[in-house]
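Help: why these numbers?

___
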Amino acid sequence: MKSQISSALSDFFFEYETPRQVLVRNRRVGVVCRLIQLGVLAYIIGWVFIYEKGYQSSDTAVSSVFSKMKGVGYTNVNGAERVWDVADYVFPPQGDSSFVVMTNYIITEGQKMGTCPEVGEICSYMFLFQGQLTGVCVPANKTCEVLAWCPVENDHNIPDPPLLMSAENYTLFIKNSVTFPLFQVTRSNLVEGIDSSYIRKCLHDPEKAPLCPIFKLGDIVKLSGFNFETIAKEGGAIGIVVDWTCNLDVDIKHCKPKYNFHGLYGNPGETDKARASVGYNFRYAKHYLDGSVQKRTLLKVFGIRIDIIVQSLARKFDIIPTLTAIGSGVGIFGVATVVCDLVLLYLLPKREFYKNMKFKYTDTQAQVSSTIAYELRT
């Protein structure tokens, strides 16, 4: 027993086992094996390393966006002239990444709390959201009387053409900074060469000035696939995507933003198929006192909602994902061996011959007899 333990320990520490290999001269099997290996190699180089950048680690950015509109609008409605500046047509005014630029409106002036007829064609006791019904019909108007801010708004006729067509010439300035925490890299869209003198005279153009952060509102609408007059009438939404896709293995100055424009909704005759609710609008009121009477001016605003969205992905060489990709690729090479073994052992006419060559069979009974004879001798 002692000798068996000693022999087992000796075999464990001082012997090396290697798989038995059989060289098979078969053209079909050889071609299949090389084709599979070539495919695996193409996958590792083309997909894992070149396309998916398997040798790099990646990180997304923490970003901040600041925006500023500039421009002046002019309207002349029934002889009433008015100039609209940024404080009048941008909502909210704080310079957020999401805001609305007013392009059309319906104004109801001098409203005060009281009773008045609804705007409608027939007297019915249906709640039309214009006020609280008093239960009185107004024969002259054939409508119901309501307790509300009077006179009630009539928004059945939207101004066409839009009142603020001059909004097409407004400009938008975008200031964006991103930080990639993993790589401790911070970048701004005011990259090298974008200084104060350049900003004063530049206007964004995808071909001539792709890095200029100043955009004409009409160009934004056009690049998003919309028609300005159509979207200005009833409003809509546009997404501006600031794309930061950076390869940090090269000089940091090559990490620059790209601007893309997407029409989200707004044109009923073009891309917007949701006919049940077309455009974008909201209401806001300006309250004031006329003597001792509280009054308000109500505006139904139609505008272009702009959402500035930052997308980011930075990559840099890292030895850990590189070794992981190489190791997984080497493991995939074993697929060729498995497939070729299946062909040899189960599909070819000489499969029994190949089985005998590949596997070495032992007789268990003979092995037991040999072990007993060895013990008797010792």
In short: Residues 250 and 316 are 9 Å apart (CA to CA).
